[in-house]
Amino acid sequence: MNPPKPTALKRLEGTWRPDRANPREPQPARLEVGARPPAWLRDKLARRYWRELVEILSPTGVLAVTDATALALLARTFAEWRRWVVWLEENEPTYETGSDERALWRARPEMTFLREAERQLITLLREFGLTPAARTRIAAVGAAEADPAEEFLRGRRLG
């Protein structure tokens, strides 16, 4: 069973129906661009990613102040995943065990940590509509697409 979707996300997906809406659903304040990460999120990479996520998600209207902790978990998971990626780029993902005659290659335990961080990261990215599949269900709000003829007439380059 899928968890319930927030109304803001249903509206972006175009699946919101007033007859199924909760008239008493809480309406927390939006988390605006420039909002600060929670104080407990001390990792510099995670804090930087948190700010980047707020800039990406705030204009869509799906981000509320009550989402700050979940967003911080996403940012922290990203930082953890990124560190494992860097570590494995600097070190071999496998190692040799046994004698020369019976050598076996094994994956480093760090590969398991990387894969688990990847699973958690994908799950959290989906929660915020930040994967290609999740994004296909969302209709972006904001400025309409520019008309190429209008852009040409204004003297702007395309591409």
Describe this structure in words.
- 46% of the residues lie in helices and 5% in strands.
- It has a two-stranded antiparallel sheet with strand order 1-2.
- It contains six helices and two strands.
- Helix 2 (44-57) packs across helix 3.
- The chain has 159 residues and is mainly alpha-helical.
- The mean pLDDT is 83.
- It is elongated, with a radius of gyration of 22 Å.
Topology summary:
Layout: H1 7-13, H2 44-57, H3 68-90, E1 94-97, E2 104-107, H4 109-127, H5 132-135, H6 148-153
Antiparallel strand pairs: 1-2
How many strands in all? 2
> How would you name the oligomeric state of the polypeptide chains in this document?
single chain
Structural class: mainly alpha
H/E series, N to C?
HHHEEHHH
Radius of gyration, CA atoms, in whole angstroms: 22 Å
- Percent helix among the residues? 40-55%
Strand order of the largest sheet: 1-2
Using the alpha-carbon principal axes, give the shape: elongated
**Biggest pleated-sheet summary:** 2 strands, antiparallel
Low-confidence parts lasting 5 or more residues at pLDDT below 50?
Answer: none
Distance between the termini: 43 Å
| Distinct helical segment count | 6
Mean pLDDT: 83
Our estimate of the beta-strand percent is: 5-15%
